[in-house]
Design a protein that fits this description.
- Two copies of one chain form a homodimer.
- By secondary structure, chain A is of the alpha+beta class.
- Chain A has three domains: 278 residues, Bira Bifunctional Protein, Domain 2 (BirA Bifunctional Protein, domain 2, 2-Layer Sandwich); 96 residues, Rossmann fold (3-Layer(aba) Sandwich), CATH 3.40.50; 69 residues, Translation Initiation Factor IF3 (2-Layer Sandwich), CATH 3.30.110.
- Helix content of chain A is 36%, strand content 27%.
- Chain A contains 15 helices and 24 strands.
- The first copy, chain A, has an eight-stranded mixed β-sheet, sandwiched between helices.
- In chain A, β20, α14 and β21 form a beta-alpha-beta unit.
- Chain A is globular.
- The first copy, chain A, starts with a helix and ends with a strand.
- Chains A and B meet through β2, α3, β3, β4 and β5 of A and β2, α3, β3, β4 and β5 of B.
């Protein structure tokens, strides 16, 4: 029976190069990360997927606190009148709002939006909380879920409800707001690269692609294994765009009434989609150790033989004591082969096998999920050995993803090159800045402008699309 | 200016014995825990209040995980048809549901409830996830906010939206479900007593007061300083009440199809109300060290004098390194007196003053918020001293609350005694078990049945209300 099931695992995952999209769906549905629900476009995060989000939450939250932010919790419902206050913002979000119109038996006089994002309620409260320059800056964040009535949804990548964090800050000056916007973009870049082993392109969005209501939007863009872009996080500088309609003003040191400058920034459960599509392979998930729910799984071999379960128990305690997230898989109703497949599918970075032969030799047989290499680690230094391996896997996964990214990113100098390059990668091109060129490129190649890198050293002087004079360096790619 | 403001603090808090309800409102609104919002009945948790909830979350979550539970995240919207499946449940919750009827530009065919609680969506998913006895038990929990369209609301005690955790578990047998229900009640009891320093009465609710859809509900009931009860947490055994309509069945070892047995349990941001009303005094909040956002605040005295800020910085580093949540209040625009008042108001357990005289003596002057006692602690063992003090404060706060509780709890043997006792305390009484008596007592005394203690040693043999034969011991009290 175990054999039969073992084969099922392999059968069910479509190869990546055959149909990347189907491969993604196969991996997502077979790894217990989430499940579909009867609520249109909404998913349930199962323990395994939810735990990844918890680890992202914990680690990012620490970075937010270390950069001076505090968490708050705002209402999930927002009165329509507040949503209407900033014109661009409402235009961007109104078409995808879920509306509460009834409370108990009472028909509401004013509709309430299930928050699609919380700028308008934050701004409403900020206008109460900010009086004087002494109240500034306010650097707040909240962890919650938001709702956008999307027409087509895909697990993690685009769902009606998704979980995220949204930072909202208020500053006295334009300079401080810009500094905050850039700092948080950088926090996201560091987090993606160090914690998720996902290299990203950081830069500024075009006016067309910026957030509804923002003066400037910056993003970190990751590359999936099909060469497509995935926007992993955004950081917005609002200037006074919201402060004016919401009347967020402060009395300056000189006694003058001034408008505040604001920012917002967020990442979401989308990051889990990015992890899957950056690192996964034919065997399933491949999780970076830093956010893996289990960093190591211990599998007893010939568990019925004397001493095996005992040694496994000792190994479990040793790894746990060393701060490793470890699971001892002591199920007796499936074979070791079945377990090998299951934990490979689930992407656990390190597999620790302990059987009679290992014990005889005083070692555990350890396999790393990223390369499938096996080594023997002495049982009496198992925790040190596994910890070193985890650090190496984390680095190696980043290196491989970064090599892939660089191999699939090219400078393009004309439209034909652009078209060819975005068929599986990022194109770096000169762009005149005209939205018409973005529209044309999107229509004809399905690629969109991703962002303008901070290093704007020109690679030419004419627009890749219209041939007019161009001074902006822009990344183009097809995107999720 | 500082003097003037200092007086304001004192002026604004109504004495507890003059008007407890106003005292509560004064404390809540002046301590930056929360703010009212333009969304009816919904509050915003400000950083200080949100941090208390975060600490509750962290500490309880660990207890949940240590007892074998895993976190998940379910959709916030629930289709009406699911809510209708369990008759008692829908009857209990339908009147207070906020309904989404419109998604983007589309009028929905079926209304979606903003979750008032999540039994129905959990059960829907459980029916997919449970097939065999090998899948059991499932022991899940989620942290989220829920919405109940309440007519009258009070910060923390009763709000339209509130934050909570809801555990939902599925078991093979009735015994296991009952064991889980009791275990989680016990987790809540331990948490209230150890972490919040709030003593509680644990017991079983009457049929009238049990959860809509439950077979049995257990609760922990705390006593506020006005002698009223506050239900601090509940744990429900559903038996097969939900499993039958939702068809949650498993194939047993013997190959028979059996219905599952379920539980759910929750505590909410109400606990913050309980903390305020159990421990607070005329100066404001008094926070138990374990959930205080800042356990100690360091105040420089004569900060401009040489060496003061330096010593304060050293003290800050020492306390922080010892794992103490510490704040250094180095504001130069308010006086030490103003700061004293502010941090007393905010309930910080320990105040550490360091001025030139202290430095001369090699000590810090330390005040404990629970008793206002001042001691000198040598600067070179400040962290140990403060940590010992924090442990003592935690215990002392529990002791004081427990003495108050015992002094305001009495056995009553007739209706007159009952009436007198519930006017500021808990009455322990014999009860016949008839709901009519509960109704009569509520109508005439405003007290409700709280719970039946596990120790059911009779204190008489006739019902305190109707005089008929009675075998149940029940606590009655007015409640929030």
């Amino acid at each position: 029976m175990a054999k039969e099931k073992k084969q099922e695992f392999v059968q069910h995952i479509t190869p990546r190069d055959e149909n990347f999209s189907q491969w993604y769906t196969d991996v997502v549905t077979q790894t217990d990360l989430m499940d579909y629900t009867p609520v249109r476009g909404c998913m349930a995060l199962k323990p395994y997927g939810n735990r990844i989000w918890e680890l992202i939450h914990e680690q990012l939250d620490k970075m937010f606190k270390d950069t001076g932010h505090e968490n708050v919790s705002m209402p999930m419902l927002i009165p329509e009148s507040l949503l209407l206050k900033e014109a661009d913002h409402v235009e961007g979000f109104a078409p995808e709002v879920a509306w509460v119109t009834q409370g108990g038996t009472e028909k509401l006089q004013e509709r309430l939006a299930v928050r699609p994002t919380s700028e308008t309620i934050f701004c409403t409260m900020f206008s109460k909380w900010v009086q004087s320059y002494r109240d500034l800056p306010l650097k707040y964040n909240q962890w919650c879920s938001v709702m956008r009535w999307e027409k087509t949804t895909r697990p993690f990548l685009r769902t009606a409800e998704f979980w995220w964090q949204e930072g909202h800050t208020v500053h006295a000056t334009a300079e401080e707001a810009e500094e905050e916007t850039q700092m948080m973009l950088n926090v996201y870049k560091t987090f993606c690269e160090k914690n998720l082993a996902i290299p990203v392109f950081a830069g500024q969005k075009s006016d067309k692609e910026k957030f509804a209501g923002a003066r400037a939007t910056y993003s970190v863009e990751a590359m999936m294994q099909d060469g497509k872009a995935l926007q992993a996080g955004t950081s917005h500088n609002f200037g006074t765009n919201f402060a004016v309609p919401f009347e967020i003003q402060y009395l300056s040191k000189d006694g003058k009434l001034e408008y505040c400058h604001e920012t917002s920034w967020g990442v979401s459960t989308r990051l889990i989609g990015a992890i899957i599509m950056t690192h996964g392979d034919e065997r399933g998930l491949k999780l970076p150790p830093m956010i893996a729910p289990f960093q190591a799984v211990i599998l007893p071999i010939a568990a019925h033989k004397g001493g095996v379960m005992e040694k496994c128990g000792e190994a479990f305690s040793a790894l746990k004591a060393a701060g490793i997230r470890v699971k001892l898989d002591d199920r007796d109703n499936v074979s070791p082969g079945w377990k090998f497949n299951e934990w490979e599918l689930k992407g656990v970075p390190v597999r620790v096998e302990i059987g009679p032969k290992d014990i005889e030799n005083g070692v555990a047989t350890v396999m790393r999920r990223d390369t499938f290499e096996k080594t023997a680690i002495p049982l009496d230094s198992l925790a040190e050995g596994v910890n070193a391996l985890l650090a190496d896997i984390q680095q190696n996964m980043y290196r491989i993803a970064d090599e892939f990214r660089l191999a699939h990113t090219k400078d393009v100098h004309n439209y034909e090159e652009l078209k060819a390059q975005v068929d599986g990668g990022y194109a770096r091109a000169m762009w005149c800045g005209d939205q018409k060129c973005e529209d044309k490129i999107k229509e004809e190649t399905a690629a969109t402008s991703r962002n303008m890198p901070f290093d704007q050293t020109p690679i030419g002087d004419t627009c890749v699309c219209c041939g007019r004079k161009a001074s902006k360096v822009m990344y183009f790619a097809k995107a999720y």
